[in-house]
Amino acid sequence: MQTKELAELTSVSVRTLHHYDKIGLLVPQKDEWNGYRIYSENDVDKLQQILFFKELDFPLKKIKQILDDPSFDKKVALTLQRHLLVEKKQRIEAMLNTLDQTIKNQKGEITMTNEEKFTGFDFSNNPYEEEARKLWGDKVVDKANERVNNMNEQEQQTIKESFEAEFRHLASIRTVAPESEVAQEAMNHFFHYLNDTHGNIYSLEAFASLGEMYVADERFKKNIDQFGDGLAIFLKSAMAIYAKNN
Q: For residue 173, is pLDDT > 70?
């Protein structure tokens, strides 16, 4: 089938399919007469795999590595994906139940203990670091941690104040269009600022992924939006545009 047909079948946009082709994630055959992309049954199955991995929050670069690996076994992958999705479902259901109980508690219908208020949450590990390791790999995070840990208390305080000043500046322009010259100049400064303070560890892909995290994790979003409502969403869009354009 052609691109438009596959897009209609899967609800994946034509633009996204073109992007997958461009980065080598899903590369269809080209019609030798008109150059149209032609997707085979194998391509359709591969797209299904891509979407399963995306639902599990795998970045596209990691998905490509997995699917390109000669040892990739589709049957094993499907079994693993099902296991991970069931785990995700159980976490969501536990949190939904806690939410329902909290609503009843607020209405005075029941009384929850403090322990019950946090059923379904698991913060035994740093969620930001886990997400960063998943997106960018251990080396990047270890390098960032090492740089900060090697600072004395005064240096760490200086970095903290510097970050707050940077976010206050970004908050001051959050109402402009993310693609505007003002926003993109700010993103250029922010990109180099992060690398200057963390030892040049952020690639453009990591920069865009960081923007995604600003919105995807509600706790992260809350910390950023304290500088100005809507800042996290603005940064996500502006950072993605900057990474794509550069």
A: yes
